[in-house]
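2024-03-11 09:14:02 DEBUG pipeline.ingest accepted 1 chain
2024-03-11 09:14:02 DEBUG pipeline.ingest length=203
2024-03-11 09:14:03 DEBUG pipeline.predict start
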Amino acid sequence: AEHQIHHLYLEQQKPKNNNCSLFLHIMIYLAKGSHVTVHNNITAAARQIHTKTGTQFVYARTTINLIGTGSTYEEYTTMSAKNNSYYDLKTTAKLHTPYTIANINLKAVVYDASKCITQSNIIIKKAAEYSTGKEKSEILLIDEESTAEVIPQLEVHNDNTICSHAGSISSINGEKIFYLKSKGIAEQQAKELIIDGFLGSNE
């Protein structure tokens, strides 16, 4: 059945580091035949707390355990890091049983001398034959002061599986800006259109 979750653990708290605006730890256990799709907007969650604390550090960890045969987990995360903020995000999917599927996708835009570190790790256990693990992270840098790291990882203990991972960091294409400006669109609006198109194509 869709959205059948065996167990869910969620912790959101303010850690000892006073510079942290959002500390989030999620653990999900998926039962047999379950199908869960998650759409995350990390920026919105961080902004809600940032208005109260004035801090700009976001630390989030998600662990998904696919313990039921035939279970599927899909995650689509978008975020925008602005105003010298720091994002440290990691998603780990552990496939324990046969015919399980994990599909992790992230798109991030980084502005204003901000930094973003994203890690995705798919672990396929020995018993998880005929399973599929895919992960993809894409980051768009808006200025030269902003930085990013993309760390995709695969840990496969069964050869009878399908796995892939990809990560990319890019800047706004100057030719696209020039083309849009030639059509009478202001430079800032052109950048916004490119960013909207980048984030809107997450799936």
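2024-03-11 09:14:41 DEBUG pipeline.report Residues 1-16, 48-55 have pLDDT under 50 and may be disordered.
2024-03-11 09:14:41 DEBUG pipeline.predict end
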